[in-house]
């Protein structure tokens, strides 16, 4: 089996793991275990290393000699450099080691998840993180929270959120988002 096939399957596995870790980090919010962040950094470094290993293959496929020279005529060479980045929120000037980048537009904003999505994240978090002796009570609190929100009872909703946060700190991310929605009157 060619080397590039092994690298591609390894890359695919790293990307899958990175997606799962990012999902865990988003679900846990501020209560994310530092091990998750460290593993994300390690996987990103491994992906960069794999891209570096793949660069000679890409040069050959593009018709470039191993030293970086191109076998194309000079007037046919691609003189552009493609760099991609995603920014969410306000971004001003960004300093890099070789110069400044002036960002004039940002990526498409992340869509609002909405009440049902946040309640769904809480239910999933209860399923994934609550101990067996706490799971049923936590499910009942999520139901109580959903009822309080539909009745526009902010006090009962806050009681349910506080209870969940005290007993399941791994749900801090979705709880914080729901509190933000409640205070903005979006839920």
Structural class of the secondary elements?
Answer: mainly alpha
pLDDT below 50 for ≥5 consecutive residues: which ranges?
A: 64-80, 105-111
| Spatial sequence of strands, sheet with the most strands | 1-2
| Biggest β-sheet description | 2 strands, antiparallel
Q: Based on Cα principal axes, name the global outline.
A: elongated
Q: Can you give keywords for this protein?
A:
single chain; 187 residues; mainly alpha; two-stranded antiparallel sheet; 4% strand; elongated
Structural summary, described in words:
By secondary structure, the protein is mainly alpha-helical. It folds into two domains: 1-62; 114-184, no CATH class. The chain contains six helices and two strands; from the N terminus they run ααββαααα. It has helices spanning 3-28, 34-61, 114-129, 132-150, 154-167, 172-184; strands at residues 93-96, 99-102. It has a two-stranded antiparallel sheet. β1 (93-96) and β2 (99-102) form a beta hairpin. α3 (114-129) packs antiparallel against α4. The radius of gyration is 24 Å and the shape is elongated.
Short description:
The protein has 187 residues and is mainly alpha-helical.
